[in-house]
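Input.
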Amino acid sequence: MNSRCASVSRLIPFSCVDGPGSRLALFLQGCNLRCKNCHNPWTMGRCNDCGECVLHCPHDALSLSAGKVWWQSDVCQQCDTCLQMCPQQATPMTQTMSVDEVLHHIRKASLFIEGITVSGGEATTQLPFVIALFSAIKADPHLQHLTCMVDSNGMLRETGWEKLLPVCDGVMLDLKAWDSACHLQLTGRDNAAIKRSILFLAERGKLAELRLLVIPGHVDYLQHVDALAAFIHRLGNIPVRLNAFHAHGVYGEAKAWPSATPEDVEQLAQGLRERGVNNVIFPALYL
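Output.
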């Protein structure tokens, strides 16, 4: 029995967009960045049971009892009012799940998936749980064929990666801007630790994919394309996935930002190709 628990915002039994093949995707609550362009902004914070959401729920699906917010899933209409009102950028709909409970879902899906991906929020903010979950999968004869991957922002220190990598098959990691000042403007933190993580993982053969999000007028990849391409060359033949920003689902000032067009993405791809970066993956979808 493994009763170590995590705060989970969502579990998707079958996903084809969270890593290679069909995968079970587990989204953990909480993040150590505050990205203006985040498409899941309610996964950033942790509910502190302030009750603000209870006051605004139009369907009476939330209540405050014994100092705790309670969510009634059978009454909820998924209108997202609570998400938009939360001052913590959290959600009252998180579940506390143990390793054993997650394993139960994995076993039900195991014949139809190639692996699991733990995402967020930021998965590594609940690192002991991720390590315990991956260790249990690797130790189970019926599950150990599944690959265990993490979708991360890269803010984890090297000591944390060293604990995780023995049971992790790969990490998909975002580099949200090249220059630290631009990254700070977008996310609230600089990117020095993220660049260290990218190099650390690549050196150990654990960097599965580097992701660049094209946001017209708000990212600086093209201004620093020489340095960016040189950095990518240091990683080996790692796939570089170009994603296209769209404002659907974001809050705050980013709702007014322009969506990335195929031309915007091609401009960056061409700049990288001209500098010898050829393992580029284009967006599957533009909105």
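The longest helix spans residues 127-139.
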